[in-house]
Amino acid sequence: MAKFGRLALRLSILMSWISTGASGQGTKREYDLAASLPGKVADKVLRELVQPVWQPDGSFWYRVKTGPGSKFEWVYVDPVSKSKTVVIDSDRLKSVLPRIESRTTGGNLVESIARSKDHPGAFLLKISGERFRWTPGGEKLDREEPKIEDAADAAERSAPRASLRQGPETFVTFVNSSGADAHLQWIDPEGKPKGYGHLKPGEERRQHTFGGHVWRVFDDKGNDLAWIEAEDEPTTVEIRPARPAKDAGEAKEKTSPRNGRDVTKRNGRQRRGDGGVDSHPRLRVQGQNLEFRNSEIAEWKPLTTDGIPADAYRGPFRVSPDGKKAIALRVKPPGERTVKIIESSPADQFQPKEIAFDYLKPGDEIERVWPVLVDLEAGKVIPVDHALFENPWSLDRFHWSGDSAEFYFLYNQRGHKVVRLVGVKAADGAARTVVEEKYDTFVDYPNKIWMHWTDDSKTLLWMSERSGFNHLYRVDVQAGKIEKPLTSGEFVVRKVERIDDEAQRLWFTAGGLHKGQDPYQLHLASVKFDGSEFRTLTDADGNHSTTFSPDGKTFLDRYSSVDLPPVHEMRSSETGELLAKLESADASALVSAGWTVPERFVAKGRDGVTDIYGVIYRPSHFDPAKKYPVVEEIYAGPHGAHVPKAWGLQMRQHQMAELGFVVVQIDGMGTNWRSKAFHDVAAGNLADAGFPDRKAWIRKAAETRPWMDLSRVGIYGGSAGGQNAMRALIDHHDFYQVAVADCGCHDNRMDKIWWNELWLGWPVGPQYEASSNTVHAHKMQGKLMLVVGELDRNVDPASTMQVASALVKADKDFELLVVPGAGHGSAETPYGSRRRADFLVRHLYGAEPRRAP
């Protein structure tokens, strides 16, 4: 458990007021406390960050902060021996650095660490670009000369493949002893070669690179001389003449332990997300039409003639594996909508500037795309039946079957109630549904559409909420049906983290895996492609984030919560076995400096059944005998869940609390990552914003916290949160009395098209008016402040000005702050933040802010 665990941290909150002393609220003293908080709490958490630098064998090293200032330890972790070794600390490093020549004494940072292969128990450290050998507990650093490696020997450990790891900066010195020109290529993470020139016979080059990056060396005829994986330390590689064919063949047949595939196969097979090619020897786009030729030397001839700018043929081309068919596109461009804003006070001129940019809004004409099937042998277009994809919002993720008999694509219907994987027969263009998601509400396509093809393209792994929770499924592609679920139960799959096609296993994070824990907390699990061998790999109560080793055999597990500093462990990817405890963060100095630990709280929502989760923040000068106004920071955007779950300083909320407020954050119904029913509350109804759950939660919290004064409740938020904050005073002014709404999308017809059509649907109809603050502005009661940046390019600033106009017409009192030169989130500028704080203090305390205590 991290030092100063949950119980001790919470007790520290209750006692903090004794040492600090109670004070007035919203006075200059509280403002000074809020302003000074970031400085007071900076650099106060020890052993908090572990950023692994992985080695090819799955070991890694990291630097961890152990004390104030520049006190660190450098640690090496070996998964085989399940050991953690403190290699050196900053004090010891400083004591031995003076023994190094003066030109290196300025470098007190260890740039890389590796085990010494020639000296058991010793490590090789790179400091200021030079290598030294060091034995923990020793007395001196011994300089190590860069080793010279035979390129053929290097090839034995570096099979042809992509660069799958980026370690620290390093150098490879290539020495060309092959007797002929040697050409260099870097192989990028997608397996694509990037040329880096050539070395003449006898030439030497010191090449900058990164540990784990792969380099190909080849001769003028394209024959491989070597495949080199850069080590984390500088090395010298001698390039010699090619080995006999047998040895070279053996090197080419070796596969990478990281992905089990050589570069040729990786680049040659159809991969998920393949974007196609922009040109083809026998097919091209000319103007708005396609042209075709029978051979690479034949004359181009028109293949289509009906293309026009408003309905044109386009690439890229997706060619079938057998090369006989290709997919092109037919594209209708989007409509035009330009938003114009005024920069009143530009830095480079005296007169204002007009800024215009493209910005589609709900209901506008969108770009529409359809597939065009081309027979490359016959030189003709095969008509494709469009009945299954007549109204596309998007059409993408093209994929050919291995036998070239069928191609597939993902169709997202405008309005986002249907997402369908369509298969099209290459022989005749007949279309069929392979699998689809269809709901009366919405398909959460940005977050919950995921698919993975097996190598034979006969099986597809798919993500779906059809059970009421987000899960993974196995699809029989040929039969066009769900074969079986890979996961099931009352938990939510959040993200597929890793896939091993060879082992037929995938790893994913999910929320709600452990009963009794916060269902938003992420845990890691794995399952076979056939749904067998389901394994939960983390169990500690906290929000887990994981980093896999390059070989996938182990992972670094970091878990924490808002009241638990981070804990780091190394675990087995196969079983979840704890291999080594690494670090438990120490936050005691943070709390001593005046930072109060947030309190997690759970209460039933509007239905009296569903648990609603939130967080409570108190000021450092908290006095349980006093009463504090409650201020909610709201953001109810359905695209996510927004209450923090992992450790963090949450400075905005703490600074607001320092002014004399109890600050709360809550995820009500309509936000993401619970059940489908929980999420669907937002469908066609952004006005709801989970307010019935929020009010129930706050009231329940106040039952056992008499210092929460529910006669004084305020709310603030930005963007969607700005819309929510104002809505509180329209529909829930019986509970909320004061609101600050920054850059709000107060009428969703004024906001960006994709976000609003996803939740409110298409076509635009009465549901938009029902959720519009502008339409319902006359119902507003309470103290309202509207804030907007004149240069907001995220939410059209006219949205705020239109709701202000509606308030004026309704003869409503309110404040309007337009921040010159500010963009989206202008209430987070120093001036906007201070004005927001002043407004809440003035109206929740009934006193002028920043007054003398």
Which percent range describes the beta-strand content? 35-45%
Helical coverage, percent range: 10-25%
Decide which structural class fits the backbone: alpha+beta
* Gap from first CA to last CA: 41 Å
Biggest sheet features:
8 strands, mixed
CATH architecture of the domain at 6-40 and 590-845: 3-Layer(aba) Sandwich
Strand order of the largest sheet: 42-43-45-44-46-47-48-49
Structure description:
Helices cover 17% and strands 35% of the residues. With 853 residues, the protein is of the alpha+beta class. Among the domains are: 6-40 and 590-845, Alpha/Beta hydrolase fold, catalytic domain (Rossmann fold), CATH 3.40.50.1820; 53-144, no CATH class; 148-268, Immunoglobulin-like, CATH 2.60.40.780. The strands form twelve sheets. The chain has an eight-stranded mixed beta sheet, sandwiched between helices. A four-stranded antiparallel beta sheet has the order 1-2-3-4. α2 packs antiparallel against α9. The chain is globular and about 85 Å long. Mean pLDDT is 90; it is low at 9-23, 101-108, 155-159 and 244-274.
Helices, strands, pairings?
Elements: H1 6-20, H2 28-41, E1 53-54, E2 60-67, E3 71-78, E4 83-89, H3 90-96, E5 110-115, E6 123-127, E7 130-134, E8 142-144, E9 148-150, H4 151-157, E10 169-176, E11 182-187, E12 193-199, E13 204-210, E14 214-218, E15 224-229, E16 235-239, H5 245-253, H6 263-268, E17 283-286, E18 289-292, E19 301-302, E20 312-319, E21 325-332, E22 338-343, E23 353-358, E24 368-375, E25 380-382, E26 392-400, E27 406-413, E28 418-425, E29 431-438, H7 445-448, E30 451-453, E31 459-464, E32 471-476, E33 481-485, E34 492-500, E35 505-511, E36 522-528, E37 535-536, E38 543-548, E39 554-561, E40 564-572, E41 578-584, H8 588-592, E42 599-604, E43 611-617, E44 628-633, H9 651-658, E45 662-667, H10 676-680, H11 691-703, E46 708-718, H12 720-731, E47 738-742, H13 753-760, H14 766-770, E48 783-789, H15 798-809, E49 815-819, H16 830-845
Parallel strand pairs: 9-16, 10-16, 44-45, 44-46, 46-47, 47-48, 48-49
Antiparallel strand pairs: 1-2, 2-3, 3-4, 5-6, 6-7, 7-8, 10-13, 11-12, 11-14, 14-15, 17-18, 18-19, 20-21, 21-24, 22-23, 24-25, 26-27, 27-28, 28-29, 30-31, 31-32, 32-33, 34-35, 35-36, 36-37, 38-39, 39-40, 40-41, 42-43, 43-45
Helix pairs in contact: 2-9
